[in-house]
Amino acid sequence: MDFEFIYAKIFVMYNITPSSGIKAELNIPADKSISHRAVFLSALCPQKTKIYPFLSSDDTEATLDCMKRLGVSCYRDSSSQDNLYVQGKSLYFPKEGEAKLFAGESGTTIRILTGLLVGQKFSSHFSASTYLSRRPMSRIINPLSEMKANISGNRKTIQGKENIYPPLMIEPVPQLVGKEHKNKIASAQVKSALLLAGLYAKGQTIVEEPHKSRDHTEKMLKNFGADIKINNTTITLTPGNKLRPPKEIFIPSDFSSAAFFIVLGLILKNSQITIKNVNLNSTRCGLLKVLKRMNADITIKNQKNAVEPYGDLVVKSSKLKPTIVEPEEIPAMIDEVPILCVAAAFANGRTQIKGVKELTVKETDRVNSMLVNLGKAGVGIAKKYYGQDDLKIEINGSRNYKGGEFESYGDHRTAMSMVIFALTAKGPSSIDDLRCINKSFPEFMKIVEKIKKDED
Ligand code: S3P
Fold it and tell me: Which end of the chain, N or C, is surrounded by fewer C-beta atoms within 10 Å?
């Protein structure tokens, strides 16, 4: 069992050998999306809120750093680093002078927090690291501007796409106004930015989505006492209610992180993996439905509810069948498409994953990163444009693959997907750089190493 570091240039090359089967019970870190939102909303109330367990990762640390710069105190419990306390302010942060904020690589931080900043009485300068500085911001700037927000950014053309990119400049305005938004893409970051801006607006803010994206912001706003009505894909926020935090916010484990080990348990022979306390919000676990259609042996146990539903997942090795994923299924599994590609590579026959255009504007173009990596290992995989302007991935699965020399493209979900693939390939593999995994799941490689060690 050989994990071995090869220090090459500035990268740490990681070598991975196949596994022969895993029996494990895992605890996965807290949900990233809910961790960000718990901090944003707690910051708006003058009380102290306990958030536990809070995800410690590069992205959530970026949110905490922004909060510190906005004068909101967030601190950890000396008895348990998992407990985060937020001593909030009020709807209006008492900040003087320009706020200089840095989102690192966290799209959720820059996009959702901008929705709060447009209502403040001070200016903000919001910058980002390399990959995030190449991700489109017009999707929040345009609808927020319709609410009379004053945001500007770096207008340029990247890979043929003209858009506005970070850094963003946000100037205070006398009064935001509520608007009815009909969003063209299902994006929880866009929806959340609009709803948070709606807290500062005159009149109602209505957001209609083409398909339901993750609804953590709506659930949490409701839990904080906001006047919010949800009618399928339409959400109406009426400003004016005083926000009151619950004393404590419990955050279940991140389904998107659990997904890597769910797929590992299915495609690896002689395996059974139990994953404890996983968030089972239906707007997040679309992958479960698709995997079940593919003949996956997954059982849910000990279901509970604490604003968000959660439970234990028991996954057993399964002979997967191919499937067709329709575009309307994608929003509930937007971050799981890379690992679904890995599962599909082990399903005997042709799987189609339709409606994946949004994947091209994630941390990297994930259609491309999975095509290149799985292609290197001998998986039959192709992308095809279809309809007006959409994209699908086709994968011809079998069970036997050699390993490969994989690239993370600086993307955590590509990197983790390829580690899982490497564990099930027939030969050794390497991956160029795994530091990007710290964005969402810093313990990932430790868990992989532990379950491999237990197998020896
Ligand atoms: C997120 C929403 C999704 C997802 C991202 C986290 C969130 O992005 O891909 O990882 O926390 O709201 P989009 O809103 O761009 O779909």
Answer: C
SS3 at position 195: helix
- Among 187, 360, 364, which is best to mutate for testing ligand 1, by the most ligand atoms less than 8 A from CB? 187
Can you give the pLDDT at residue 14?
Answer: 84
4-29+253-455 and 32-250, same CATH topology:
yes
CATH topology of domain 4-29+253-455: UDP-n-acetylglucosamine1-carboxyvinyl-transferase; Chain (3.65.10)
Domain-by-domain residue ranges, the chain?
4-29+253-455, 32-250
Superfamily of domain 32-250: Enolpyruvate transferase domain (3.65.10.10)
Instruction: Judge whether 335 counts as a catalytic residue.
Output: yes
Q: Tell whether ligand 1 has an atom less than 6 A from the beta carbon of residue 281.
A: no
* Closest residue CA from atom 4 of ligand 1: 335
Q: Answer whether residue 200 shows pLDDT above 90.
A: yes
Q: Record the pTM.
A: 0.96
- 171: CB partners within 8 A, 6+ apart: 123, 150, 151
Average pLDDT over residues 274-289: 98
Q: Is the bond into 167 cis (omega within 30 degrees of 0)?
A: yes
pLDDT-derived band at 1 (thresholds 50, 70, 90) equals very low
- Counting from 1 in the atom list of ligand 1, the atom nearest the Cα of 361 is 15
Which is catalytic among the residues 31, 59, 335, 365? 335
For the residues 382-393, what does the mean pLDDT come to? Answer: 94
Measured by CA distance, the residue closest to atom 11 of ligand 1 is 33
Q: For a substitution probing ligand 1, which of 334, 336, 364 has the most ligand atoms within 8 Å of its CB?
A: 334
Q: How far is CA 353 from CA 159, 188, 372, 377, 418, in A?
A: 24, 21, 17, 20, 18
Does residue 336 line the site of ligand 1, with CB under 6 A?
no
